[in-house]
Specification:
about 90 residues; three-stranded antiparallel sheet; globular; 3 helices; single chain; 3 strands; alpha+beta
């Protein structure tokens, strides 16, 4: 599964059903998406899809965080990166 396919899955399965709930904030963990999709060693693709999904929907990425660390300096593509979005 490539980045575009993962992003399409995120849009159709997670964000489209919520598109009328304006102001809703949702947090997704990269590793959870990786597991749900049954992927192996595709964590960087999942993180890239999570970072860029807002370009394809009416959502805004508010925050990306890795508990206890600077997400961009330390494993920006790790399983424990959490992305918070707001539905617009």
């Amino acid at each position: 599964m490539n980045v575009a396919q993962i992003r399409d899955w995120l849009v159709t399965q997670i964000f489209d059903p919520l598109k009328n709930v304006h102001g809703l904030k949702i947090t997704l963990r990269a590793g959870d998406i990786h597991s749900v999709l049954g992927l192996t060693r595709r964590q960087p693709s999942v993180c890239q899809a999570l970072r860029t999904v807002s370009q394809y929907t009416q959502i805004v990425v508010l925050h990306a965080a890795r508990p206890g660390a600077n997400v961009y300096a330390n494993q920006p593509n790790g399983a424990n990166v959490w992305y918070t979005y707001e539905i617009r």
